[in-house]
Inverse folding.
């Protein structure tokens, strides 16, 4: 694993500033999200991604127009990185009518097909075969598009991982599988569940290209996924990318993350992807004031979006019958309150 | 009009669907050159090539997932799950992803996926290859489930399933593959959600699907000789059930027998009985009778398997009891 | 006698079972030091150690398979599947292996496996984490399915499940974990397959499980103020259903409402209605009423989710309609 | 992959003659089985294992008393190799009351727990986690026992394979996973479904011991599984053994196996495991007459068993309600012909 403190030269500085902006937005978004939940303004659960922004932004920004992405319940960052609007993303988490999914999906199922964020999936592993299917369609339609599929380290132990990677490889599908290895699956450290050192080596079981990167170095993530996407487009098949990163918060709303060894979080905070990228940009000549402006703009955008989201309406009661089927008739038939009598 | 087998009707249904729309393709284990474990896709590989008739590894989760992913990008996959019982290994893909994906995203994705599954008992395949697995999915809103019994229905429902913008589980009864029936030269789709009155009658309504429908027709014939006029209805779709057609019949006959090739609890038959009672309790002159298979796994031995499920004779007896109630 | 939460009752049930029999152990994701995603196994790891409280990888197929394999060699595993919805990824293990293995081998193996699953809606977990998944397994002979609603039943059924020589699916309603109730100092097992008359009454029978049972009790209270005496029955086991206890009640009240937190088709409620009609059609003075959740996936938004399923108010309204029929 | 024409010296000649006897029995058993099906005397389907006897006998004979085995629908050979009686095995396939499973299981579910044949499973992959569970119990009970789990090459692509091997490895369970690599999954050649050269390399994804052997050389199979079992007993965890072999017949009753390249079968017939083992025994000094006697005794035993099996009774109708539950009461309650009315 190489570490590049210097930003890769190939990417324009303006673009790299935009990465920073995106990472900041996600970070602020997650902080506000956390507040919404701890204040009890939103029910259910949420899985925050502070600390993993480098992977999500670095990977998604390696995509071209029309490319797509699927991710997990810990998907706020990935969906925002694809360009989902902040206000409607907040609104979905708050269960509003103007939420990305009309309030039907919630925090774990953020989806904005219009920006290529095809879905967030909450059953571990389930979207890995779906991503293969997306890639199959691109191949079938000869669209030249690729799709990214994000998932966690813990997900590499579930059956669907195996089936999906095998299928993607044998059919040489244009998909980039990105493991966000944040060292834990819920409360279990990787070593307790997974008998190998490097998850990326599982690619060998499928004859698949592989690359392991420092996930907190956005430049390296971007470079790795750019290469993987190019290979996929060229018909060379899928790549398994393992991005080493860390989640700053607990697994979910209710988790204080007491299982972490002392000092671990602090060490990773030193390697915060935002911090690292800011340093890289400074080395590239961007001054502190400009960096602060990016941060402040992001913060303002997030807070404004949150205000707008709060003002949005709750979904209309009857809307709960919509979208079961493409043709509405069938669902409507059952709209009479579920009484058989 | 020609005589074809149930198997041939499905094959033709798939072929016509593929001919009509380039986005339609088939994937599954050995569906290609081998023509499928039940030879239902025989000839499709030769005709449509490896891009559109795709052999997969033994990976049902991947098959269903790939179908979902391809569908949301505009294709119209037909996925084969060989024995319906194998739906157990991809149940999550069907029940938690395919059925809910559109709803969870507020209608952002459309899922024109057809999943074909070889259903049912009667061939000595034992407990893990003989179930009526449509019953596993009844409590999962978001799916449509069809269960054709004849070549014409199989063809028509296949065309309807592939043309449908929503997920359809298409259950093919293994024991019917060689059954023959008429098929129009230019056959039409059969609307999903529409029951068929197979045989009109006045005294009692018998509802049955797939292999049991043929038994029910036989039973009606026998009953007719005794002067009992049984109306036979094949729902053809079990999710959603066409309760209206059944109620129209029961409103006249005031007696109903539902015969099915599965245990009673959690079955489409029990669901139908509950709906009949809800909508037409006052019309009924006898308790609705649900004739089911034993509440055991499907036994292997010939004799045991035959006894395990209802047949024409038992339908006759049950119907008599209902008529004489 | 003390007041405990539903969660604590299950924890104690597991602990007492482990104390009583060394062959009993627990496996699942983060059930160990972390105490389980819902903290139901809190303290067990410290008390019984890593051999008997085992963290697994995220591999539900392996969890269920390991439980089966361990059981046939004489152990008595308790396997946790966290959210019941995840039963979709190990459906084959439960429905095709666990349920049929004894039968297929002519009784050569015994499978004292308890599978714990976090069931139900009401907490804003969305479509993939809120289902009443007991309904997926009703058509699968070979399983016993329990659905406790109170701490006492949760404790008693846990002890019965672990002591049972057959596979038991133990559904814990997530929304009840913090609900309090009485638990005896030396609590007894609760027999599997026995319904409980929660509240006696004369005019109408209301049948409900888990969170809906509490709603039904509330509804009965409201109805009592209007002079309607509702008997509330909690089946506690949905496979096999204790039809006798329900029929004893319906024989007196002649009216029945079944309220459930799931869509109607393929549900235990529909199965019960079918059985009630079969056994007591003539006794009924009103159609049996099945009050179900909407026929949609579970929506996320607070208001939508609340509307999605019945509540005390809707049970009251439905019961009134039935009484006034 | 090494090929030993000479029999491993460590195993006594009498024992090796017994292997031959067992392979012959399985071969004759399968030939008779095929006849039963093609003559229409038995319904359903059957999956024969002629050609794979070297793997099944070689592996099972590496077990000690009290060790156990699980296998697939193609399991006649493995179950017989464990010592199941020929007549009751025939009887099960014929659906007789005296069949191993009382006629409830059939060809795909042969089970004889009394000899350690814990079950034959017909859903691909399903028994791999079950075998891990068996091994977990041995560990838990500190029994010192090991269990073998047989499955096919095609089964290495299903999710349960992945989950089971990962679990077995992380818990260091005493299980030996044996791939009977017969080059085909149903009608698909391995290369069409599996993007790697050597299936055994998938062990690396689980940090698992591995060994690849010529499955038609019973001595090598025996040696590999003996070593794997010893390691398992010693607490060193599971091994993945890949045994290269070939099925002489089609996948199932209805398969003429036309998908095979010309000459392939003939080549493998030259390497018939029985033939190879006979040669090895001859090199070790056993004369042709003795070998012929083993063969003839096996044939006679099989034909006699078949006669006995034919004379067995069909199961009593009411027996179909037995064995759903350990306590019979529940199943009996539904014995009144499944009528709700
Ligand atoms: C099939 C299934 N099993 C279990 C869970 C519960 N669960 C939710 S998140 C999680 C941990 C996942 O860990 P990892 O893949 O590393 O992703 P991370 O949460 O670290 O992003 C688990 C076990 C689930 N959602 N689906
Ligand atoms: C989950 C599942 N999918 C598909 C099948 C159908 N099927 C039965 S055998 C078989 C081929 C298995 O190939 P392999 O694992 O190589 O074993 P072999 O038959 O060659 O012994 C298939 C696909 C099944 N039984 N279970
Ligand atoms: Mg993780
Ligand atoms: Mg094979």
């Amino acid at each position: 694993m190489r570490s590049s403190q210097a930003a890769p030269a190939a990417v324009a500085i303006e673009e790299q500033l935009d990465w920073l902006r995106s990472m900041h937005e996600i970070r602020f978004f997650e902080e506000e999200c956390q507040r919404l939940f701890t204040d009890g303004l939103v029910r259910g659960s949420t899985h925050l991604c502070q600390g993993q922004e480098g992977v999500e932004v670095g990977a998604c920004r390696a995509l071209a127009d029309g490319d797509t992405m699927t991710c997990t319940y810990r998907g706020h960052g990935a969906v925002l990185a694809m360009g989902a609007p902040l206000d409607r993303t907040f609104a979905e988490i708050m269960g509003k009518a103007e939420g990305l999914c009309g309030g039907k999906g919630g925090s774990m199922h953020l989806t904005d097909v219009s920006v290529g964020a095809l879905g967030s999936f909450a059953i571990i592993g389930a979207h890995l075969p779906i991503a293969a299917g997306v890639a199959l369609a691109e191949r079938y339609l000869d669209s030249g598009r690729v799709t990214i599929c994000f998932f966690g380290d813990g997900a590499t132990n579930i059956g669907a991982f195996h089936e999906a990677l095998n299928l993607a490889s044998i059919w040489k599908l244009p998909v980039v599988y990105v493991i966000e290895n944040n060292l834990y699956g819920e409360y279990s450290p990787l070593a307790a569940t997974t008998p190998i050192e490097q998850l990326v080596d599982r690619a060998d079981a499928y004859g698949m290209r592989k690359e392991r990167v420092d996930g907190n170095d956005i430049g390296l993530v971007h470079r790795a996924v750019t290469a993987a996407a190019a290979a996929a487009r060229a018909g060379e098949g899928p790549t398994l990318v393992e991005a080493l990163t860390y989640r700053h918060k607990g697994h979910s709303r209710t988790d204080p993350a007491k299982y972490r060894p002392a000092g671990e979080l602090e060490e990773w905070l030193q390697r915060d992807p935002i911090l690292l990228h800011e340093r890289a940009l400074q080395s590239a000549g961007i001054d502190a004031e400009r960096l602060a402006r990016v941060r402040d703009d992001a913060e303002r955008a997030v807070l404004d979006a949150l205000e707008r989201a709060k003002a949005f309406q709750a979904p209309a009661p009857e809307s709960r019958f919509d979208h079961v089927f493409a043709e509405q008739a069938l669902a409507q038939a059952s709209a009479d309150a579920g009484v058989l009598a | 009009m020609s005589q074809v087998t149930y198997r041939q009707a499905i094959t033709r249904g798939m072929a016509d669907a593929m001919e009509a729309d380039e986005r339609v393709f088939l994937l599954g284990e050995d569906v290609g050159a081998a023509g499928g474990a039940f030879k239902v896709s025989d000839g499709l590989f030769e005709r449509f090539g490896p891009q559109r008739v795709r052999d997969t590894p033994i990976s049902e989760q991947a098959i269903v997932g790939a179908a979902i992913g391809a569908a949301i990008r505009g294709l119209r996959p037909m996925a084969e799950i060989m024995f319906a019982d194998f739906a157990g290994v991809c149940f999550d893909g069907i029940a938690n992803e395919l059925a809910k994906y559109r709803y969870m995203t507020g209608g952002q994705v459309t899922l024109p996926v057809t999943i074909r599954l070889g259903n049912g008992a009667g061939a000595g395949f034992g407990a893990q290859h003989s179930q009526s697995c449509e019953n596993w999915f009844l409590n999962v809103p978001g799916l449509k489930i069809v269960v054709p019994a004849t070549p014409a229905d199989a063809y028509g429902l296949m065309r309807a399933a592939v043309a449908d913008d929503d997920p359809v589980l298409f259950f093919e009864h293994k024991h019917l593959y060689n059954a023959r029936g008429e098929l129009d030269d230019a056959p039409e789709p059969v609307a999903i959600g529409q029951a068929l009155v197979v045989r009109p009658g006045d005294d009692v309504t018998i509802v049955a699907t797939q292999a049991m429908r043929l038994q029910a027709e036989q039973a009606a014939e026998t009953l007719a000789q005794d002067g009992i006029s049984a109306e036979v209805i094949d729902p053809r779709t079990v999710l959603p059930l066409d309760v209206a057609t059944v109620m129209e019949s029961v409103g006249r006959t005031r007696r109903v027998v539902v015969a099915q090739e599965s245990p009673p609890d959690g079955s489409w038959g029990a669901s139908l009985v509950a709906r009949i009672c809800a909508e037409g309790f006052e019309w009924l002159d006898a308790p609705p009778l649900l004739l089911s298979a034993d509440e055991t796994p499907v036994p292997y031995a010939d004799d045991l398997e035959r006894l395990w499920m209802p047949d024409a004779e038992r339908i006759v007896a049950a119907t008599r009891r209902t008529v004489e109630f």
In short: Residues 210-225 of chain C form the longest helix (16 residues).
